[in-house]
Amino acid sequence: MSRYCKLDGKLDKKSRESWKLAGITLVTAIITGWALDSILILGILLASGLLFGFFAEEEEDL
């Protein structure tokens, strides 16, 4: 028998806590990754917009 299961096949308390912690960790990682990805995309858009605006102004002066 696995050390995570009792003889009746139900998960013991330690295993349930492990699965709960794993679930919380997974959800936190997904949310954090989504937030960081959004910040990165917005930063790239802002930088490209500023660069485009800067070069567009330069060309108008010529």
TrEMBL record:
<dbReference type="Pfam" id="PF03551">
    <property type="entry name" value="PadR"/>
</dbReference>
<dbReference type="InterPro" id="IPR018309">
    <property type="entry name" value="Tscrpt_reg_PadR_C"/>
</dbReference>
<dbReference type="InterPro" id="IPR036388">
    <property type="entry name" value="WH-like_DNA-bd_sf"/>
</dbReference>
<protein>
    <submittedName>
        <fullName>Uncharacterized protein</fullName>
    </submittedName>
</protein>
<dbReference type="Pfam" id="PF10400">
    <property type="entry name" value="Vir_act_alpha_C"/>
</dbReference>
<dbReference type="InterPro" id="IPR005149">
    <property type="entry name" value="Tscrpt_reg_PadR_N"/>
</dbReference>
<dbReference type="InterPro" id="IPR036390">
    <property type="entry name" value="WH_DNA-bd_sf"/>
</dbReference>
